[in-house]
Specification:
The protein is an all-beta fold. It has a single domain (8-141), classed as Vitelline Membrane Outer Layer Protein I, subunit A (Aligned Prism). It contains no helices and twelve strands. A hairpin with a 3-residue loop joins strand 7 and strand 8 (77-84). It is globular.
């Protein structure tokens, strides 16, 4: 888990036949990440985390995937930079605190979900789930490992 964690657990992911098509983060005035939502197909998941914050979303192009994540955290998540296989970059929050870099264990894997924990003030930790896009892997090659 990236961050210290603690609080209520949450999880959001694309199904085995679906792909993430967008991601939305809400950030509070103190720069703390309040919540996260995934867009799968044309539908948004429930909002996971604390209420409030200014929400920003990143909509992926068709056949575009998130392939790595840079971020920072203190007591709560502070910043994320998402990198795609189409060369696009999306930045959320403000870069301060301890840094991390997350990417899949195997070439060709992409972001397929997030889980983590949140407290009253915001997201206290995140885990990134990586897997092959639908139709590009067998059940035997599926993975949820993150590497720092």
């Amino acid at each position: 888990m990236y961050g210290y964690g603690g609080g209520k657990y949450f999880s959001a992911s694309a199904g085995s036949e679906d792909e993430i098509t967008g991601i939305r983060f809400c950030v509070g005035p103190a720069g703390l990440f309040k919540s996260v939502q995934l867009r799968v197909g044309s539908s948004w998941s429930e909002r996971h985390g604390a209420p409030g914050g200014n929400c920003q979303e990143f909509i992926l192009w068709p056949d575009e995937h998130i392939v790595s994540v840079y971020g920072t955290y203190g007591l709560f998540l502070r910043s994320l930079v998402l990198y795609t296989d189409q060369g696009r970059v999306a930045t959320f929050g403000s870069d301060s605190g301890q840094s991390f870099f997350a990417y899949p264990e195997e070439d060709g894997q992409v972001l397929t979900g997030v889980s983590g924990q949140h407290k009253l003030l915001g997201i206290s930790g995140l885990i990134f789930k990586w897997n092959f896009p639908p139709g590009e892997a067998t059940a035997a090659s599926r993975s949820t490992t993150t590497i720092t």
